[in-house]
Amino acid sequence: MATFIVLLGPPGVGKGTQAKILAETTKLAHVSSGDLFRENLKNQTELGKLAKSYMDKGELVPDDVTISMIRDRLFRPDCEAGAILDGFPRTPAQAEALEKMLADFNGKVDYVPFITAPEEVLVERASGRWTCRSQGHIYHQKFNPPQKAGICDIDGSELYQRDDDKAETVTNRIKVYFQQTMPLVEYYRQKGVLVEIDGSQPVEQVTEELLSALKK
Ligand code: AP5
User: Fold this and answer.
1) Which ligand 1 atom is at minimum distance from the Cα of 206?
2) Which of 82, 88, 161, 169 could bridge across to 58 with cysteines, CB 3.0–4.6 Å?
3) Which residue among 71, 162, 166, 189 is the active-site one?
4) 35 alpha carbon to ligand 1 midpoint, in Å?
5) Quick check: helix, strand or coil at residue 112?
């Protein structure tokens, strides 16, 4: 049976960083809604243009387009054994839609690591983030700098700062998270799949806590 893990947590807490590590360790696919929108933006698709108008303000992209994008992604062959979902679901409607989609795989959401950190940590992490242009590898100018400034260690491509990492946009993304995504914490707690993880620790310790929670 396929395994599905949903990484839940506020903007900048380290979901993408941990999802990439977990995907390597577990060999499950990494499905990031933010990366899919940015990929569409890079390719100048209609979906990318629509998403940009929301992302630039730190607002959520409407549920219907987000759900259909994720459905298409989950039906690709690399998700047959399951996936690590990063940034999806983010609203109760998305969580319900996910449940229905996974039923088609004879699956369900198995674990929901809920990663948290104080707001000042989130802002510092987002504002110092550098992302790789070709494959989305993640760096931080202070906590995880690349060997050569502006260049990805892994594939040599250019690093850039996301438009939505400007201070005022990050503040709005955190506000939107509390208003629209926090209800999912109770939703998954009641299903008995939520595991709380202290995301304010260094990357390696967060990974250790995540892996030991998943083993249990
Ligand atoms: P998305 O790309 O999903 O952004 P997010 O959820 O706001 O999360 P981030 O990517 O900002 O942070 P992260 O938790 O992945 O942290 P990271 O590992 O990069 O969404 C962007 C936008 O797309 C949304 O605002 C919305 O408009 C739209 N969207 C996406 N999904 C949607 C959905 N489902 N519905 C509707 N709209 C949607 O780490 C951050 C930084 O910290 C990095 O520099 C990293 O190196 C560093 N770092 C990570 N961990 C640590 C650590 N433990 N210690 C020190 N530094 C660390």
Assistant:
1) 53
2) 169
3) 162
4) 9
5) strand
- The residue type at 38: R
Tens-digit pLDDT string for the chain (216 aa):
899 999 999 999 999 999 999 999 999 999 999 999 999 999 999 999 999 999 999 999 999 999 999 999 999 999 999 999 999 999 999 999 999 999 987 899 999 999 999 999 999 999 999 999 998 999 999 999 999 999 999 999 999 999 999 888 999 999 999 999 999 999 999 999 999 999 999 999 999 999 999 887
Q: Quick one: how many helices (H) and strands (E) in the chain?
A: 9, 8
112 bridge partner residues: 194
pTM (2 d.p.):
0.96
Nearest CA to 160 among 126, 123, 129, 125?
129
Nearest CA to ligand 1 atom 34: 88
